[in-house]
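Handout, section 4.2: multi-component inputs.
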Amino acid sequence: MPIQSYFQERWGQAMKRKIRLTVNNETYDLEVENRRTLLEVIREDLHLLGTKQMCNMGECGSCTVLMDGQAVNSCITLAVEAHGKKIETIEGVARDGKLDPIQEAFVAKGAVQCGYCSPGMIMTAKDLLAKNPQPTEKEVKTAIAGNLCRCTGYVRIVDAILTAADTMKE
Amino acid sequence: MTKYDFVGKDVPRVDADVKVTGEAMFTTDVKLPNMLWGRMLRSPLPHAKILNIDTSKAERLNGVKAVITGEETPFVFGVSHMDQTPLQTEKVRYVGDPVAAVAAVNLDTALEALDLIQVDYEPLPAVFDPEEAMKEGAPIIHEGVERNIAANPRYNIGDVEKAFQNADHVFEDCLETQRVAHVCPEPHNCVAVWDQSGKLTFYYCSQMPSVTRVQLSKALGIPESKIRVITNNVGGGFGSRATSKFPMDFAAIVLARKAGRPVRIEYTRDEEFIYSTFRHKFIMTVKTGIKNDGTITGRHITNVCDNGAYSDYGPVVTNVGGAMQGTLYRFMDYRYDGYTVYTNLPYGGAMRGIGNPQVHYAGETQLNMIADRLGMDPLELRLKNVVRTGDETASGAILKSCGLAECLEEAADKIGWKEKRANPVPNRGLGIACGVHFTGVRLSPGIDADFAGATLTVNDDGSVNLATSCVDIGSGSSTALTQIAAEVLGIEIEKINTIFGDTETCPMGWGSRASRNTAIGGMAVQKAAEDARKQILKAAGEKLEVHPDDLDIRNSTVFVKSAPGKSLDVADVVRFNRYRKDGQAVMAKSHWDAPSQLADPVTGRGNFSMAFSFGAKAIEVEVDPGTGRIKVLNVAASQDLGKAINPLGAIGQIEGAVHMGLGFAMSEEIVLDDTGRMKNNYLLDYRVLTPLDMPPVSPILVETDDRAGAFGAKGVGEMATIGTPDALVSAVAGATGLFITDLPITPEKVLMGLKRKESK
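Output:
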């Protein structure tokens, strides 16, 4: 059952709460219904459409954002849980018009095809490389095992993340 | 070989920058002011008469702006058979058949409104098995369709009975494939909006927007000029967004007109699994005659395709599988009997290879079973029988280029075929299979066309706007087409902006299906670019006072071949040409129809595609006899793709296709309950292989330079899917001695098979 229906069935029309989010270094004061997900607030209220919805059940990773530096599935994170937290979405990854090394590697290595999973995949890779700057191939595959890609067979994505790790070391 | 500046180079995708930043716009990102959310009410019963639909309570719910039933959607649609209406009025034919739709201010309200619609049904006897549905006395699903047989595509070439008499052995085996989902990352979704002039704008995630416009015009009875279809980036298609139209398309359009506001309908993931079509289930019997020396004398394949409740691509997939099995080996006596049979189940559609991977699975797996029975080397057996360049095949295909033997040899070499077979390791096995697929196709009866379009303008600053009929659904076609334009024009890739997907700015074409974008779409681009180049050279010749034949273009500079110092920027030429009395723009257009032919209506024979791609897969596995678990150790995937316009992109297509093929072989299956409701419609239950499941893949590109397509290119994406399950099943047989003939081969099936074998 979709999360919205679950909440609606249990508690009816939910109450609203005031929250403060810092998204890509900008602060937003919002009033949101308790039952709304972080993904909904990012896409519908903040109009940041780079974060994608694929399954809405925490099974595909396409909605991955960083919450206080930790990769989370924003479709199963309540917006109220993000109160006071720092959120980074795909829109915050490139800085001053320049791609991040992970993004550059995705472009150069052919890791992008349809591109629908790419934002979530890149956010997961950012989380991995922040914690483990020199991962093995197996560690990369394990990190992105929760991110579904239907186009590439993951070969070029793994290659791109390993390449980015090397670039960032230099 | 000719040296090229752009063609044949590993070029990063032209759309990669905006895709890695999240800026790339998909249809799911279309939000319009005042937009409503639409939702359809689906039948809970597999086969039932509709007695009454009461929508009054739903209409009264606060926030509901429109409610519609089938009375308001009297449109008939379909791919080859016009057997479907958007919302049912008289009876429902599968669990999920839509009966009503609502549009509301948000999704929650729309969902609540659906609960308030009262539908009274009278259940009818239903049939869920195509073989049962073909029997006399089975429930009839569509009035007037006897024994529920929607289509009966056949090939009857030569004399197959005589070929069996001339064989030393005749083998007959039954093989089955399961329903497999596309799992497009972007769900099927659309936004419809009407304006006061009666014009419809339809934001639609599609592989074929210009064909969609024709279909909508015919169904709705409004002129094409009053319909604009806009397709943004497409989050995966794999065939599910080709010419299929969906009830949601019409529901959104009618709701939008009724409510006077834009309406979005978007599938949830569980709907996407089963209501966006899927790969049909095939039940196949393959009979093959073979001589002691390994020569195949003839083949007879019978295929029962479970069509589901509506035809969509069912008749087409049944046909294509048959045509292609007559195009792989040199036997000339071939019979194929396809039956596309209605059942009270959700309906399938086109999926990467359009029926060909299923029938190839049966043919190739049986050939490996035969090799096993006769103690032959499956590689040698294939090399003895494969089609070669210059052949006219049983199906009537004329092979202007064919690298099939080379594909087999290279894949076998890469996997270590000879050494490993000579030195077997317990619980390990090798499997090999090969295949053929078309590059564009003329198999639709009545439509003698297979074309693409391109329009091209060179701007004042020497940059280029290229509009194509080919939608880049992730395949990388826009990049390949840009390379082709750059090569012909001598203008750098960065200066070319390639667009697709808007029927008001892009030319008409068949769109993205049948692996045709690079070769056929590329030819349209090549022709338009050649025309524009001629215009540039003519104007430059006037300005430089030399004959255009003595001019060439490179790096955006027009230069005199005999005096390279004498040159002009392309930009200067374009401005010179435009800003003078009786000036001209550098503009070109092309509509290119592939040189293929419609098949003979009686025998089914014909040269139905302009070029054929070939490929082979060789796979090594290790099977754990204690658990039945299959570990894929290596996959070698070779493909004759004519010419790799962008090798990086082609390799990515092959790797992705192997991933999809392994899922088809080992883990993916749509499981239905006894009323046809999908039981595993979530990603945790429907197992797409994860990165940890993926074995190393070695893609091998074999170039044969087929001159029919742009720069010698042939199709890639579909052929690459073919052969993976066939090779995998045979590799498992090599490891265990067991041929498991019904896909997917799960650990349970392997374990049960091993237990049965032990108890014998």
